[in-house]
Design goal:
By secondary structure, the protein is an all-alpha fold. It is built from four helices and no strands.
């Protein structure tokens, strides 16, 4: 597998795990949604921090094109 797709594959696997847990815990769905929505801003703030130290390969090199990933290094 091309290293370019590693980040995408692992992100999709984590989404799959979240979905399985969401559907298995019928009584705790509202808690899962509340926590997911509460922590989403932390994930959205990633572009502010990680381009300085981590350079993941992105699909179609969109990270470099959108300055989401620093090209220095």
């Amino acid at each position: 597998m091309n290293m370019q797709y590693t980040y995408l594959v692992w992100s999709l696997l984590l989404l799959l795990v979240w979905t399985v847990i969401f559907y298995l815990l019928k009584g705790g769905r509202t808690n899962i949604l509340k926590m997911s929505l509460g922590t989403a801003p932390l994930g959205l703030s990633e572009p502010l921090f990680y381009p300085d130290y981590w350079f993941p390969p992105t699909v179609f090199k969109l990270g470099e094109a959108t300055v989401f990933v620093s090209t220095i290094g």
